[in-house]
Amino acid sequence: MGASEEKVRMSSVLTIRGGIPLTGKVTVRGAKNLVPKAMVAALLGNEPSRLRNVPEIQDVDIVTSLLQLHGVAVERDATTGDLTLDPTNAKTARVADIDAHAGDSRIPILLCGPLIHSIGEAFIPDLGGCRIGDRPIDYHLDVLRQFGAVVDKRPGGISISAPRGLRGAKITLPYPSVGATEQVLLTATRAEGVTELKGAAIEPEIMDLVAVLQKMGAIIAVLNDRTIRIEGVPELGGYTHRALSDRNEAASWASAALATHGDIFVEGASQRDMMTFLNVYRKLGGGLSIEDEGIRFFHPGGKLSPLVLETDVHPGFMTDWQQPLVVALTQAEGVSIVHETVYENRFGFTEALGRMGATIQLHRECLGSVPCRFGQRNFLHSAVISGATPLHGADFDVPDLRGGFSHLIAALAADGVSRATGVGVIRRGYEYFTEKLGALGADFDLEEGQ
Ligand SMILES: CC(=O)N[C@H]1[C@@H](OP(=O)(O)OP(=O)(O)OC[C@H]2O[C@@H](n3ccc(=O)[nH]c3=O)[C@H](O)[C@@H]2O)O[C@H](CO)[C@@H](O)[C@@H]1O
Ligand SMILES: C=C(OP(=O)(O)O)C(=O)O
Q1: Residue 311 Cα, ligand 1 centroid: separation in angstroms?
Q2: Between the CA of residue 390 and those of 259, 355, 356, 412, 414, what are the distances in Å?
Q3: Do 49 and 187 share a domain, yes or no?
Q4: Into which family does the record put it (predicted)?
Q5: Structural domain that includes position 254
Q6: Is residue 224 part of an annotated ligand binding site?
């Protein structure tokens, strides 16, 4: 399966003949938002680590390459896909080699603490990731400075060191940022003394990273009210860990089932990590059957009900679920309202949905009650979706990971033919997605591209 997925390249083109309900079973493996970070954590150890349930996605390839450039031996078991990461010969990498990864992903910024701990310095390329807002790294750099790091901006990235070592700190985040919380965890575990983080993010992927670090020997207490206390230790060992499953991929398939009038069993979907999504799915009129091995998502027939929805940090409605679900909302009878409070610019993908027949109006106002950083700031961050509207095929270029997958869902639900260019972006977070679409009965052709 993995070998054939290699055919999907950045410039690949998918021609989709829509209107077929997606039916069958897909399997989701480890979370894109945990696996690369657990790989980075391996750098903190003084012995090899073993990571299980690793998906074949591009973010894993990128972090593999970055770790290898730093002397970490990364081996993939050909049968299971499990990774063994041996950091015992970690070394400084050539800046030019690192810079070749500029714009690839958001993970490199998380190498700062682990690299300083293991080799004393870090060169970090400019970040990539989805263009769904400005996505600054000011919290990361503030946090690192509070630990005693010295940050120098340079063309193409930053260089960072800690001439007097990294020391525990009392830190308060202005917003519960996932990445900045992980930055603190990955830096504090081997910093001297105690770190107290207030305003922490508490997403399931962060809790899984805490579990990884605890296996390595870290002392981390997750207290209530978004406070995490870390007692630094001088050394960490390796870990053996099975990554939690990808709740965002699972939610994407769930939305695809609803939008196409289909029925998909998502093996590996975890109820515990998706409770907020499952409540919304049920209110919308989606069918659910929660089982030990996964969750069946289906369109039960009849009309879907419109919703008022706000994205938020965990335990709120995850922003990465928003884009695929909006496609399903175009098929609800009446007016739905979605207020995006995590990213200021996550509705750009709706332009293509409009060309496919959806009625979606974007607004600058906060159409919701969650206190939001974007009101009065001219960002089109609320959407009003009027349905149900039949969708028809269109051509589109994949804009980003979730936006691109949402366009695919719309094309699969639409009557007629759609042509999607640049579909390789979707490999950043969805493994084997063309094989999975084929197994669900989708009708499409793939042109491989360069
Ligand atoms: C690889 C990964 O795990 N990506 C996830 C991670 O992204 P990521 O970790 O980048 O997201 P954050 O939680 O940090 O970002 C949330 C908000 O904080 C802002 N911010 C963040 C850092 C900073 O230094 N300054 C700043 O202003 C961002 O612009 C954004 O508006 O969490 C997001 C929120 O659940 C998810 O959508 C992404 O899928
Ligand atoms: C925004 C996302 O990812 P990243 O932070 O890697 O860009 C996402 O997975 O939807």
Answers
A1: 13
A2: 11, 12, 8, 12, 7
A3: yes
A4: Belongs to the EPSP synthase family. MurA subfamily.
A5: 2-28+245-447
A6: no
Per-residue pLDDT of the chain (450 residues; tens, 9 = 90+): 343 444 787 888 999 999 999 999 999 999 999 999 999 999 999 999 999 999 999 999 999 999 999 999 999 999 999 999 999 999 999 988 988 898 888 999 999 999 999 999 999 999 988 888 889 999 999 999 999 999 999 888 999 999 999 999 999 999 999 999 999 999 999 999 999 999 999 999 999 999 999 999 999 999 999 999 999 999 999 999 999 999 999 999 999 999 999 999 999 999 999 999 999 999 999 999 999 999 999 999 999 999 999 999 999 999 999 999 999 999 999 999 999 999 999 999 999 999 999 999 999 999 999 889 998 889 999 999 999 999 999 999 999 999 999 999 999 999 999 999 999 999 999 999 999 999 999 999 999 876
- Nearest Cα residue to atom 1 of ligand 1: 33
The Cα-based distances of 88 to 70, 118, 237 in angstroms read 11, 9, 11
Residue from 109, 205, 401, 425 to probe ligand 2 pocket by mutation (most atoms less than 8 Å from CB): 401
> Which of 224, 242, 260 marks a domain boundary?
242
CATH of the domain at 44: 3.65.10.10
78 and 123 housed in the same domain: yes
CA of 414 to the centre of ligand 1 (A): 32
> Nearest to residue 84, comparing CAs of 66, 102, 72?
72
Q: Ligand 2: does its nearest atom lie under 6 Å from the Cβ of 31?
A: no
Residue nearest to atom 8 of ligand 2 (CA): 320
Q: Is 130 known to be catalytic?
A: yes
Structural domain tally of the chain? 2
Identify whether residues 232 and 270 lie together within a single domain: no
Instruction: Decide: 186 and 206 in contact? Cβ < 8 Å.
Output: no
For residue 59, which atom of ligand 2 is closest to its CA?
6
Do residue 262 and residue 385 come from a single domain? Answer: yes
Question: Which ligand 1 atom lies nearest to the CA of residue 314?
Answer: 35
- 268 and 194 fall within a common domain: no
Task: Please indicate if the annotation marks 33 as binding a ligand.
Answer: yes
The domain boundary, picked from 242, 273, 302, lies at 242
pTM (predicted TM-score): 0.97
**Distance of CA 132 from the midpoint of ligand 1 (Å):** 10
Same-domain check for residues 217 and 80: yes
Residue positions counted in the chain: 450
**DSSP labels for 180-246?**
HHHHHHHHHTTSBSEEEEES----HHHHHHHHHHHHHT-EEEEETTTEEEEE--S-B---EEEPPB-
Give the ligand 2 atom nearest the CA of 179: 5
Going by C-alpha positions, the residue among 130, 124, 134, 127 that lies closest to residue 104 is: 127
- Tell me, what's the ipTM? 0.99
* Pair (9, 71) in one structural domain: no
- Point out the catalytic residue in the list 112, 130, 366, 372: 130
- Residues 172, 309 within the same domain: no
Q: How far is the CA of 129 from the centre of ligand 2 (A)?
A: 6
